[in-house]
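Weekly puzzle thread! Below is a chain. First person to post its structure in token form gets bragging rights.
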Amino acid sequence: MSERDTICALASGQPPAAICIIRLSGDRIWKLAGALLDCGLPEPRRATLTRFRDEDGHLIDEGLVVFMPGPHSYTGEDTLELYLHGGSAVINHAISTLTGEPGVRLAEPGEFTRRAFEAGKIDLTEAEGVADIIEAETNAQKAQALRQLSGGLTQQYDQWRAELTGILALIEVAVDFPDEDDAPEETTAPVLRKLGALISDMEAALGDRGIGEKIRDGFRIAIIGAPNAGKSTLLNRLAGREAAIVTSLPGTTRDVIEIRRVMGGQIVWVSDTAGLRETEDEIEAEGVRRAQRVAAEADLRVFMVDGSAPDLSVLTSPYRLPTDMVVVNKADADLADNLPAHDFRISAKTGDGVETLERALSKFISARAASVEAPVITRARHRARLVEGLACLVAARDALELGTGAELAAEDVRMAIRHLGSVVGAVGVEDVLGAVFSEFCIGK
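Winning reply:
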């Protein structure tokens, strides 16, 4: 990918559409405008009606064009946007004409935003916010993406980096003046206080139970139970379709089946799992292992008990938490007297009680999402860097407390600053740029 190239791409939805937007960025904008637009290079930041022609002078379309000169543009380069009719013939003719010009090529996924990042227009978390707001399906996802796009995460990470820079300066006093009797004593105590406060802040951010990532990627609910408890029937009820095969034969479900819903204003993945039981069937046994893994990773487990033949062994699951739900299915059957304490009675077959259960699931997810007001971690990449940075700060604190050397503590703080800087793209992120921007759509 070369910055010398001028890039172009369709920046609107796929045809047909009333209007399409074709975006260009690069230093050949003025040549393209002079050769292909009847109006030539238009006045900056003013929509201009013009005709767009190919290299042979044939009319492609008539529409609006907006020119935004660099560095005061999204990418920091000269940019041009063409607003044309959104039919396939117009779009194909326009793109083929533009890319037929010397030094002009199709943009790669996320290349416009990558150029904005490289020009210092946005940092890496803000760039990720661009991708997230495009993909947002819920108001919660949109709100989180807007906060990230507007620099909400950047402010927090920059504040931590600024505090660490101050701490590093204090530590270096002890390094630079080792013969001053008072310097180490006067600097170590405030450094330890500042380190302790910062460690607590970062531990709190890491202790958010992954809410930011879950708002972005989805919360998880696992339906757990013995064979024939009605798990697949309940999944189909929640899906509103036959997502899982339902038979009277125990062990029909062998693998994890997931559906995607919006519950409580959040994206939720609901999983149907294999019935938990001892089995010599190799395939079913693998299904049981997968069910246990899904149970361990879920935000909420729904333990289903067959009311016509209660098998209570599932309730002894090591993954069961007080916030999980126990649901007695087949409420229309003759219920046994020894039913366990339960939260809901339903009939997955007839739908009786399912709506009440669904409202409870939505309420749980909504409360879980709201349990962290403004997460500072929205991706696994952020979490990994923050974990590494925190480890460096703990090592620096230990070095100072044990008196093993201010030099070692200073180096640990420098490493922490680098880890935090890599979150926003300030340092050492070349290895992650490709992965970040490959998630973008072409034209953004």
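Puzzle host: Confirmed. Bonus trivia for everyone else. Residues 152-176 form the longest helix (25 residues).
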